[in-house]
Structure formats: structure tokens, C-alpha cells
């Protein structure tokens, strides 16, 4: 008889992510995991025992964790991602040592988390590994820092960089992202969910807006630059139903298990910013009509995940080029599995399982949840719409 594991999940004990994981465990006939909060970890009071297996989940839904990480009382603020990153990396490294000293096992590698939460380092590793990525002047540890609008203005004057995405290096959920366009006459505009508040403070908004005055764009970039910025070429995306389209693909233990098409009328396809789930079958048909293969698209995602062998589950943002002919990886997300109600791809081994059940099945094959998904019976959790996009970092939602 297979021994029952002693599981611990570090996350927000009252949040959806931990709830989904507990659902998956119950569906597999396992007891709930012991839940440890991120504030316990950040304050150094978390304790573990020999034989426990510890899973890390996002701190992004926990306001207290966000306050401890960023040092800001308002979770809607955009700034503070540099401080968030430094404290998160230090906390996960300490957690790894604490878990090992207790004789427990940490599921994911803290050193890889440090790379996954720095878009510049992540992009550089992907590029070195031969994974197709957008061109970027900030890729890798040796790239020069973008210190403000003057630096960005110089970069956008280079060939191929008239249209770029400017991203906080340690951000997520499109927080602080700007899609910047410039032309030869010197005019520029930026599309973003950033709202400028009193005193120049920046806030996340659920409404995507466009700034056309250079001084406003410059003020936003200058405010974000101290936290670190990543710049990459804005690739023309494929379209579905007249809307820009990309995909979030979840890779578990090296295998692409789940995929969702995201469409939007704005450059940002995140669901909480007005994006909508698209038609996956239509996307597969479009790839075939362009002379490609769906398996090749998934293989690109699996190659990206293979760059992080110590991380069991990642969410890959796959950018299909115009006409669905080519693919590039936009980002690899450490906590990119929040896709309520989505079941596994045919032939993936995760058929009938949601992303959390698929991870339980992969990690504990002797306790595979039944098909149908543990979220069944929880309609409040399966709307497919993200409501977590207002915090600056720590969570990645499709």
C-alpha cells in the first residue's frame, strides 16, 4: 500500500489557490495539507518536521504578505516591486534552509524562483537555451539597466524597437506594464492599466487606458525604473475574432497539460483587464491551416519549462505570431496555474483534471484524483475570471 504523504502548502490559507490545492488532495483521497502562511515565513516563525513535503504557492492574494514584502499599505500601488523581490528571494532561500534542516523536502528550487521572478534573468536563460523569445536589450545579467525615460527613449530609437513592452522586472499580472509605441517624428503613446494618482503615485486599475503625452509616459517610466525594468520587442500577435490572441500553457513535470487562449482588444490579454478566453480548437485549426503543428507549439513551452528543471509546474505565456505561423515565449510564470475550471489537454495525461489535480497526480501517482476536476461543485471558483489583478506582484493569473 502506498504510504500517505505529509504535505504542507505555503500560501494564503484563506485564498483560492490553497483552496484549489486542498480540493485536489481531497479528490485524491488524501487529507488536507497543513497550511502555512507567508507572513509566518516572512517573520521567521514557520516550522516544519521531518518527512514533510512542502509546496510553495503565491503570496499574492495575502494583503499582509504584500505589505511585508513591499512595505506599502495599499495593495493597489504599483511601486515597490524591487523591495518585494529582494525580500521574497531572501525569504525563500531561508525557507529552503529551514525545510532542509528539519528533514523535510521543498518541492521547488528557491534559486530558480529568483530567476523566474526577474524577467531580465529569465529572458536571458531562455535565449541562451535556444527558446524563441522577443528581442530584448535588457536580457541577461550583463544588460545595462534602464534608469528612466531617457534610457527608454534611446532604446526605442533602435531598429525594430519602435514598439516595445516595458515591464517591471519583478512584476506579474500585467501590473505596471506599458505597451509603448514611437514613430520617426518623435511622437509616442503608451497603453497600460497604470493610473497616475496624487503626488505621482501609481495605481493598478482594471481599466486599460492610453497616454499620449510624452511627459505623462516619462513620469510613469521614471517612477517604475528604480524597481527595475525589462524591455522587449512588441511582436505582432495572431488574431482570433478580430482580437489579439495568445496562450497560457501550463507545464507539469516537463509536459504541457493545460492550455487556454486569451484574447483582447488591448495589448494586454490578462482576463482581469478585459481579456476573454478564446477558442482553443479554433487556434489549433489556425495553426494547422498555416502549415504548423499544435504539438510544435506545445513543444516550445516544454522547452521553456526545461530551463527550470527544479520547478515542477510553470505557466508559459506563448505568443503566436501574426498568421499563427511562429511562436515565441513571452514569460515563464512560477505560479501560473490559476486557471479555474480548465481541464487537461487530450493526450497530456491530465484529461479531466484541473491544474491542481494534475500536479497532485504527477507528484503522487498512487493517489490520482478522479477525472472531472476537484473544483466540481464549487461554481464560485470556476468562473474563469481573475479578480486578483490589483496587487502588484506575487501572483500570475491568466
What does it look like?
The strands form 3 sheets. Strands 10, 11, 12, 13, 14 and 15 form a 6-stranded antiparallel beta sheet that branches. The protein has helices spanning 16-27, 38-42, 63-70, 81-101, 110-116, 119-128, 149-156, 214-224, 280-289, 294-306, 355-363; strands spanning 6-11, 34-37, 52-56, 105-106, 163-168, 178-182, 188-196, 202-211, 229-233, 239-240, 243-252, 255-264, 276-277, 313-320, 327-333. It starts with 5 loop residues before the first strand and ends in a 35-residue tail after the last helix. With 398 residues, it is an alpha+beta fold.
Estimated helix fraction = 25-40%
| Strand portion | 15-25%
The number of helical runs is 11
Estimate the mean pLDDT confidence.
92
Task: List SSEs in N-to-C order.
Answer: EHEHEHHEHHHEEEEHEEEEEHHEEH
Largest sheet: 6 strands, antiparallel
Q: Globular, elongated, flat, extended or rod-shaped: what is the shape?
A: globular
Features:
5-stranded antiparallel beta sheet, 398 residues, globular, alpha+beta, 15 strands
How would you concisely characterize the structure shown here?
It is built from eleven helices and 15 strands. It has 398 residues and is of the alpha+beta class.
Topology:
Blueprint: E1 6-11, H1 16-27, E2 34-37, H2 38-42, E3 52-56, H3 63-70, H4 81-101, E4 105-106, H5 110-116, H6 119-128, H7 149-156, E5 163-168, E6 178-182, E7 188-196, E8 202-211, H8 214-224, E9 229-233, E10 239-240, E11 243-252, E12 255-264, E13 276-277, H9 280-289, H10 294-306, E14 313-320, E15 327-333, H11 355-363
